[in-house]
Automatic annotation (TrEMBL):
The keyword Cytoplasm applies. One of its GO terms (molecular function) is cysteine-type deubiquitinase activity. PANTHER family: OTU DEUBIQUITINASE WITH LINEAR LINKAGE-SPECIFICITY A-RELATED, UBIQUITIN THIOESTERASE OTULIN. It is found in: Cytoplasm. It comes from Taeniopygia guttata. Belongs to the peptidase C65 family. Otulin subfamily. Its main location: cytoplasm. This is OTU deubiquitinase with linear linkage specificity. InterPro entries: FAM105, Otulin. The record marks E259 as: Linear diubiquitin binding. It comes from the Eukaryota.
Amino acid sequence: MYRDEEEIEREKMLLSEANSSEYKLSVSPEMDIMEYCMKEWRGNTPAAKRIRKGYEAVAQKFASIRRIRGDNYCAFRATLFQALSQAAQLPRWLQSKDFTMLPENLLSKYDWIKQWQLRQKPGKRMGEIKDEIKEYLILLRKKWKNISEIKGPLEKQEACDKLFKNEEEEYSLYEALKFLMLNTAIELYNADKSGKRVPVFSWLLFARDTSSNPCQLMHNHLNHIGHSGGLEQVEMFLLAYALQYTIQVYRLYKYSTDEFITLYPNDPEEDWPVVTLITEDDRHYNIPVRMCQETML
């Protein structure tokens, strides 16, 4: 895909920010959305004009934007922050008694899961991997429960901000999400093999040469998320199914096309909550906040 000079320069800037010691905030403070747009997209290239039009459309519904740290966990960070920010109750799948037994249950059935790569802890033995992932899942349930029980919106937001300033806990939550994605992928793969109906994205997920089954998906994709790569489009669907959330994304570079607002999944369950993200390039995600009064009414 051809990219003009302005886009290339912006990508270099994002990379340098992600690597700089002073740009370590996971979720930056909110900023007026059009002010942010005018600061970031001053040029007159076709791409810049399209992005500005996209921001103008988003500004009809949201007043502010919060910038998300642009590392390879970016999609996880944006999605989880939004989900926790609006959490009013613990999702059903987190209430399950068997939830924290997932690592043990899966490892007893699939020997290849021993090769799951933990963050900065490669080559761990099976027992250690099982226990570590269980800790991540327990932490996810605990944090989700605690934040969902906070009634005041300001206090809830403060709790989320505090959580996403604790790097160790934050990255542990992302590892939990990755394991939930693997579990969902295994369920979908087995359902398809036994002739059950599965969503279209599941066919696409396992149609790739690099992920024709859950084992390959783990080795070639999930093990690399957060380390050497982020989430691809089809994996955004998998994340949505794992969380049982609809992820609505304003894809600004697709402004004035049918793909400007994309839903993951595109046929969501009616009772799934919705989180909203913004992307300029399908690689880096930010979050819109403060829904406009007219929109709320």
